[in-house]
Amino acid sequence: MRRARGIELGLALGCFALALAITLAAWHARGPAPARASLLERLVGPFAALVASAEWVRADLALREGRFGVFCERAETALELAPSDPQAWIYYAHQLLWERTSLERGSARELRESWARAGIELLGRAERECAHPAEIWVYEGGVFAAWAEIPAEERPWPGDTRELRALAVEAFGRARALGHPKAAMFEQALRERLEQSDR
Amino acid sequence: MILAGLLRLALLRALRPAFCLLVAALLAWALATSRVPSTALLAAGSEQAPLWEHGALRASAWTIAVLCCTGWLGLQALQTLAGWRRRDVDWMAPRGASATALLCSSWSGLLCAALILGLSTAAAVEACAGGGSASWIEGPRAFDSPGGWVGSGTENHVLLATGALPRGTRLRLAFAFGSGGPQVHVRAVLVDRPGGRELARSEQSVGTHGELELALPDCPPGAELRLSIGDPELRVYHDAEAARVWLPVAHEGLASLSMLARLLLDAGSCCALALGISGWFSTATAVFTLATLALLVLVSGAGAEWLPLADLGDALHVLQEGRVPALPGLPRIAAAAALCAGGLALGAASLVRWRRER
After folding, report:
1. CATH code, B136-249
2. What distance in Å separates residue A146's CA from the closest CA in chain B?
3. Is residue A32 scored above 50 in pLDDT?
4. Distance CA B34, CA B2 (A)
5. Is B39's CB within 8 Å of A66's CB?
6. Are B275 and B343 in contact (CB under 8 A)?
7. Which of A65, A72, A104 shows the shortest C-beta gap to B39?
8. A179: which residues sit within 8 A by CB, 6+ positions away?
C-alpha cells in the first residue's frame, strides 16, 4: 500500500517536473516578453488567444450591425486578452482613424478630430503593450504621411502639412531604430518630401 | 403540498458557502474592473455616455449571476433525485408524502435560492452603479409592416403602430444593405398624419447596417414616418420588423428588476427540467442532455425568445447601453410555467415508478 502511494507520488512529481520543463522551454523559445500580461490574460491562461479570437468575431459582428460602441468594448476586451499581436491593434485603430473620421459620414469636424485623437492614443497604447512596436510605428507614420496629403479643410487633424510630415518622419525613425526592415526607406522618402517643401 | 423541511434542505444545499463565496468574488471582480473604453463613450455621445458607464457594470455582473446561478442550481436539481434513490429522502419526508409534494418542495427551495442570489446581485449592482438617472425601457414593435427599400428618388411612408406615445420616447429604426456608396445618408421625419405637422427629424449615415434614433415629443396615435435618401443613386433597406419604441423610465435601476425576473424564470425552468430529466437518466446523461439543450437555446436565433435563456443575449445588449430590457411578457411567462409543470410532472412520474419498483 505504502509502496503504491510512493509510486503515485513519484509519478505525480515526474509529471510536474516535465510540465515545468516544457513551460520553461516554451518561455525561452518565445523570446523577449513584450509587457506584463493583463489580469484577464493571466486568468484565462493558455486559452487567452482562443478567447480573444472569439471576441474579435463578436466585435466584427457588432461592427457589421452598426453598433460601434459595442464593437469598441469587445475589441478592448480582445486586446486585453491577447495584446501581443500588432495587427489586432492596427485593425482597431484603422476603424477609428479612417472609418470614423471619413467625410462620407457627414460628422462635424470636432467629432472627426476626436476620433483621430482617440486613434492616435490607441496607437500609443499599442506601442507599449504589443510584441512588435515597430509595426505600430510604421502604421502611425503611414497615417501621418497620408493625412499630410489631404487638403487642410478635409483633414481630421489640426496640424499643418509640414508638422504631419515631421511626425511621420519621427514615427518611421522610431520603427527603424527598432529594426523594421522598410522603415528606413519610408523615413528617407518622407525626409526628402519634407526638405522639398521647406525649399 | 409543500414540505417545509425539504424546502429548507434544498435551499441550504443550493447556497453552499463555497459557491456563494465564488460568485461573490466573481461579482466583485466584475464590478471593480468593468469600464467602458473612451472610444465607446465617444460613439455613444455625451447624452448617452453616463448610461453606458452604468450599463457596463450591470451587463458584466448580470452575465455572471445568470450563468452561474442557472448552471449551479440546475446541477443541484440534477443531483436531487439521484440522492433520493440512495434513500436520502425517507427520514426527512413523511411516508405518505406524494411524489409531487416531494418534487415541488425541492424545486421551491431551489427557486428560493435563485431569488436570494438574484436579490443579492441586484443590491450589489445597484449599490455600485449608483445610477439614479432616467433611462428608456424596451417597448413594443414600432411598425406592423415588414419594411422595404428606400431610395431611387422616392420617399417611403410607414405608419406607427404603437398608439399615443409620451414625451421623451425614442424611436429606433434599423437599416441594412446600404448600396451604391460606402455610406448612405438617411433622413427620417415623423409627422402627425391629419395635419402634416412635423414631430421629429433625424439624419444618419448608414453603412452595411445601421441604426437611427428619433427623440419624440408627445406623439399622437397613427403618426407617419417618412424616410428618404439624399442621393437618388443610393438605396437602403428599412428593416421595419427590427424597429423598436423605447419608453422613458424614471430610474435605470429597473434594469436589475427585469434581469431578476429573467433569472427566476430561467432558473425555475432549468431546475424543473433537470429534476424531470434526472429521474429517467443517469446523472451524467442528464447533465449532457441539459447542457446540450441550454447551448441550443443560447445560440438559437429569432423566434425562440420564449424559451428560457434564449433572450439572455439580447437583454445583455440592452443592459450594456444602460437601458432597461423589457420585462418578460406573457408568452415568456407561460412558456416557463409550461416547462416547469412538464419537468415536475416528468420527475414525479419517475419517482412513482421508482417507489413501485422498490
Report:
1. 2.60.120.260
2. 20
3. no
4. 42
5. no
6. yes
7. A72
8. A134
Q: Do B181 and A104 touch (CB under 8 A)?
A: yes
CA dist., res. A40 & res. A50, Å (int)? 13
Q: Which residues pair with B249 in a beta bridge?
A: B135
Taking Cα atoms as reference points, which of B174, B182, B184 lies closest to residue B151? B184
Q: Where are the domains of chain B?
A: 4-134+252-357, 136-249
Answer yes or no: do B208 and A66 touch at CB < 8 A: yes
Distance separating alpha carbons of residues A187 and A180, to the nearest angstrom:
11
What is the chain A residue with the closest CA to B211?
A66
pLDDT band at residue B95 using 50, 70 and 90 as cut-offs: low
Note the pLDDT tens digit of each residue in B186-243.
Answer: 888 888 877 778 888 888 888 778 888 888 888 888 888 888 887 777 888 888 888 8
In chain A, what percentage of residues exceed pLDDT 90? 40
Cell numbers given for A81: 486578452
Residue type, B129: A
Q: What is the DSSP string of B99-120?
A: HHHHHHHHHHHHHHHHHHHHHH
Question: What does the pLDDT read at residue A33?
Answer: 46
**ipTM of the assembly?**
0.74
Residue B309: predicted pLDDT: 83
User: B49: burial class by Cβ within 10 Å (0-12, 13-18, 19+)?
Assistant: middle
CA atoms of B308 and B297, how far apart (whole Å): 8
